[in-house]
Amino acid sequence: MDLDFLTHAPFWIALGQIIIIDILLGGDNAVVIALACRKLPPEQRRKGIIYGTAGAIVLRVILIAFAMVLLQLPFLKVVGALLLVWIGMKLIAPEEESHDNIEGSDKLFAAIKTIIVADLVMSVDNVIAIAGAAQSSGEHQLLLIILGLLISIPIIVWGSQLVIKLMERYPLIIVAGGMLLGWIAGGMLVTDPLFVNPDQWTWAPKLLDYNAETKMAVFNASMPIYWVAHVGGALLVLAIGKMVAAKQKKSEAAH
């Protein structure tokens, strides 16, 4: 097996991005797990957490792999980029969320089912963000996703309180996370087949070079648009997030 990719910086950068995204967007998942298992007997609670989390991981890997295939279609990366900007903005200017609809169960299987179903419903943001981060690395994308999830899930489940406290104490972490999603969104936007494939959609501007064999964009150093898009996406999320947060603060003060 060729392990040369382990010495390539893009692989480790993408892995780092996936872990950060999982931790930032996975706080709610830890709350769901705790709520779903709260009525289980102590000896079954650990099993509920482990089996429910394992099921959620497997389901999420399948969803992300499916999303990455879809992202090869024209226009879908554009939509994904817009969704990432929205998710990043919500990270910087969050609304109050309720978990009142998460029911605990005293039956192990019911608790596991609750964890998996709730994680599926809540994973749309994770799936889009992780697919976007992984696709920028080229090869070994599925390996990246699995490694990122395996590393981040224990942090979310067993270290969620520490992560939450760090985020509360250092709000800059949240802002940086939102900007990271904007950064990924910018790269996702300009690598959409719409803007790179010269053989199709000729009416659209071609922003990057194109590899006909891999059907992927080629990042040419002479084409700074890729990095401009990254930076622009990060700054756009920051600007919108701060603007919405200021509006929310003003609205709260009025009440």
TrEMBL record:
<dbReference type="Pfam" id="PF03741">
    <property type="entry name" value="TerC"/>
</dbReference>
<keyword id="KW-1133">Transmembrane helix</keyword>
<feature type="transmembrane region" description="Helical">
    <location>
        <begin position="170"/>
        <end position="190"/>
    </location>
</feature>
<feature type="transmembrane region" description="Helical">
    <location>
        <begin position="12"/>
        <end position="37"/>
    </location>
</feature>
<dbReference type="GO" id="GO:0016020">
    <property type="term" value="C:membrane"/>
</dbReference>
<keyword id="KW-0812">Transmembrane</keyword>
<dbReference type="InterPro" id="IPR022301">
    <property type="entry name" value="Integral_membrane_YjbE"/>
</dbReference>
<keyword id="KW-0472">Membrane</keyword>
<comment type="similarity">
    <text>Belongs to the TerC family.</text>
</comment>
<feature type="transmembrane region" description="Helical">
    <location>
        <begin position="225"/>
        <end position="245"/>
    </location>
</feature>
<protein>
    <submittedName>
        <fullName>Membrane protein</fullName>
    </submittedName>
</protein>
<dbReference type="InterPro" id="IPR005496">
    <property type="entry name" value="Integral_membrane_TerC"/>
</dbReference>
<feature type="transmembrane region" description="Helical">
    <location>
        <begin position="49"/>
        <end position="69"/>
    </location>
</feature>
<feature type="transmembrane region" description="Helical">
    <location>
        <begin position="140"/>
        <end position="158"/>
    </location>
</feature>
